[in-house]
Amino acid sequence: DFRIGSAVAGGGHHTSADYPEPFPSDPEYRSVLAREFSSLTPENQMKWEFIHPEEGVYDFGPADDIVAFAEANGQVVRGHTLFWHSQNPDWLENGDHTPEELRAILKDHIYTVVGHYEGRIQQWEVANEIFDDSGKLRTEDNIWLRELGPGIIADIFRWAHDADPNAQLFFNDYNVEGLNAKSDAYYALIQDLLAQGVPVHGFGMQTHLGLQYGFDGRMQQNLQRFDDLGLETAVTEIDVRGPVGADGQMSPELRQKQADWYRMALEACLAVEDCNSFTVWGVLDEHSWVPNTFPGYGDALTMEGDYERKPAYDALQETL
Ligand code: XIL
């Protein structure tokens, strides 16, 4: 049942000019996606600004194409994402809706989007990045938490479950791989929601790592405590960035360290019973969001150039 996944490039603010399409049609790209991966996550195409670009207007085209491609290739799909502080359309962020209207908009969105893909999404990242690194709910930058209060979290899981009873419903965040204030905050929240009977099924660790920081060796222990709550866990968006030169590459030594970190993350997941999914945040370095988001850093994925395999690729393959 173990799945190795990739994000499907397209639609991002940072997408390479070579891949301007919402789902790259390049046959080589598609054949590598189909051959190397058993799970796909739309990198942007299911986010609010893409799938709900105008009030009451849904655009399912690119996401439909990705889901159909996955099905044709025997792959599962992770839905990403329904509730986030980022990549929301202007009409939502800068509208003047009342809290009652916002609640109705959110409910309609979840029933419409989750319902549209009913039975075709393995795991939905229902709530994305709702805590900051200090473990405080994002009650300022997340419009829903700000306007509707934290009680909305239980509602969105209930609505999503109602719209697709077979999808596994996840929380998802970065900087939660180790034991820290943020992962503790999720642990406490999820325990509380489960005690209330809220349908929460999983916890996703994005795993956007930087070689300039440390790797918390307690990732397995952390995954295990969520597993012990009866949850699925997953590595949902892994990339490992490092400082790069003018050619966009790190030194060979850093690439080796990167390979070790990919291996450690995969080992942690494989060691935990219901960690069944490990997704890299893109196929090729040229698709990656990293260089544009973290200037001076890059080389974060497992393949480069003409789909050449980097040490990180070999490390993952040896570990499987
Ligand atoms: C990133 C995409 O990779 C970019 O293309 C886009 O411009 C911005 O978002 N956490 C998440 C992902 O949950 O959705 C983000 O993806 C990376 C951080």
Automatic annotation (TrEMBL):
UniProt record similarity statement: Belongs to the glycosyl hydrolase 10 (cellulase F) family.
Which reaction equation describes what this protein catalyses?
Endohydrolysis of (1->4)-beta-D-xylosidic linkages in xylans
Q: What class of enzyme is it?
A: hydrolase
GO MF term list = endo-1,4-beta-xylanase activity
Highest taxon of the source? Bacteria
Protein keywords: Carbohydrate metabolism, Glycosidase, Hydrolase, Polysaccharide degradation, Signal, Xylan degradation
What is the protein's species of origin? Kocuria turfanensis
Q: Which residues of the full protein are shown?
A: 52 to 371 of 389
Report domain GH10 positions. 16-319
Provide the protein name.
Beta-xylanase
Q: Which GO terms describe its biological process?
A: xylan catabolic process
